[in-house]
Amino acid sequence: MATVTKENGRSSIPVGGCWNRGHSFSAILLAVAVCATIVVSHGWQATSLVMGGVVVVVVGLMLLRIHWSLNVLSSHSEGLSESAAIAEEHYIDVLLRIVRSVEARDKYSIGHSERVGKLAGKMAEYMGFSDHEARQLGTAGQLHDIGMVAIPEHIIVGKAKMGVQGFRTIKTHSQIGYDVLMPLQSISGVLDVARYHHERMNGTGYPEGLRGEEIPLCARIVAVADAYDAMTHDRPQRLALSSFSAVEELCRCAPAGYDSDCVNALAECLNFPVLEEALAVTA
Ligand SMILES: [Fe+2]
Q: Which residues contact 170 (CB under 8 A, 6 or more apart)?
């Protein structure tokens, strides 16, 4: 069977690994020559059986060649899939570097996306996602704000004092992130997370004003992780809340703003009381 080798990161098939066209053509020519020789030397009656045998051999050779060709195509296809996976890994790596460079423009944002991704992945585990799904959500969480790359620096840095126009510009980052991540469809939920992580359960979010379960679950999880991380880190206009105070605040905002199940999962991740108990503390 032909094998696929890698040279300079590209897949290639060894020339000697398959039955090439020249071999097939030679086999047919040889068979025809043998038939012709037998016909000339022994006549039609003596050669009918031999002719049948030769036809069987030629057809067998052709079937063998088709079989080998299919094997080669299959190997080539596997090689292409592997190359596509490697290319996608590189693409994700580049995107994560872009996220870090965008965050570097604002000292209050540094490390935010990485923390959100880790927390969202952990919450997903508590909510029964498989390890693979939780890892994918972790990556999606790290990329949730990549659309901020298109927001001018003076708006990012002046977020605390921005006006209506500035906020309108900031809001475009969810659609921009969706567009940037469009080629990454193999990561489950990445597009929904980028586009819908600012939707709110009561329909007051953006970009589409979705309500409740209209908002994809992965985006509801990241929304909670995003808000929790923002609350527990200093911002220009306020100091960081403690973890417990942030969970209390999220409990207070659920279910109108955030999915209660997701807030519960966050509380469990942090070993805090579940929602009902936290609400009781808040009351
Ligand atoms: Fe965002």
A: 151, 155, 159, 162
